[in-house]
Input
Amino acid sequence: MLRTAEITAALTRPSGGKESHQLYWGPTLEFSLDCFVCERLGRTTVFERGAEKALCSGTRSGLGRHHAPARIAAFDSTSGDERLAVRILVDFWWAPFEDGRDGRRSAAPTSHPWVRLHLGYYCHETRESGKPSIQTNVGRPWDLRCGDCDQILATDSETPAVRLLV
Output
């Protein structure tokens, strides 16, 4: 059956500071899904905006990385002086199964959803670009800093939210 998950996240930019790094949400994300193709729970699945299918990390023994019946269905970002937010809808096909290794039952999304969202920026001071990321399983608040000039780009105060819609 086709399922849809909504992933939302927001970052706070330093107040009163000039946006000198052109921070933006990147086109890729990683999301944990229970994969009925390789029959494993909590597989890291890589999504690329515009791609027709995702890529499952697979298993170490047996079926390795493989295409997954999933895609980014919608990607909406908003940017203001002090806030950068994103809302992503992910469509994925799901069917019930038991994990081939330990027999646990699958869920949609997985019972412990995890997501990593990628960002990008360009530092005008050093003329270098960077690609930081945020994810659900880190301590907060967390300051994202430029890898070159060490300026705070934004603060990650809230865990990205994952909600099953359909």
